[in-house]
Write a structure and sequence with these properties.
It comes from Streptomyces edwardsiae. The protein is mainly beta. It is built from no helices and 10 strands. The structure holds FE2/S2 (inorganic) cluster. FE2/S2 (inorganic) cluster binds next to loops.
Length: 105
């Protein structure tokens, strides 16, 4: 599994998604409840950035139509989205947030 640096841990604010591009893939990095998650930044319902949505209870909500995706699994728990969004393993090393795009979970 190859990890690449997404951002600094100190750059993240609790419940405020940070959008980064990793090898051309848009990823939303989210610090919530003291844990860091990485989820593909494109809503599975339409081509909209999830990083512009709100984070609550380990979910990120799409601002356009309100589907909520579980940051642990990428699964939506509210319509209109029916397909999951890829989520990626995260590792913290010092102040570095590392994400592996090679293995979606
Ligand atoms: S674009 Fe995200 S729920 Fe419709």
């Amino acid at each position: 599994m190859t990890f690449v640096r997404a951002c600094g841990l100190s750059e993240l604010e609790e419940d405020t998604p940070k959008r980064v591009e990793l090898d051309g893939t848009p990823v939303s990095v989210v610090l919530t409840g003291g844990e860091v998650f990485a989820i593909n930044d494109i809503c599975s319902h339409a081509n909209v950035s999830l990083a512009e949505g709100e984070v609550d209870d380990c979910h990120i909500e799409c601002w356009l139509h309100g589907s909520r995706f579980d940051l642990r699994s990428g699964k939506p728990d509210a319509l209109p989205a029916t397909r999951p969004v890829p989520v990626y393993p995260v590792k913290i090393e010092g102040d570095d947030v590392l994400v592996s795009l090679t293995q979606e979970s």
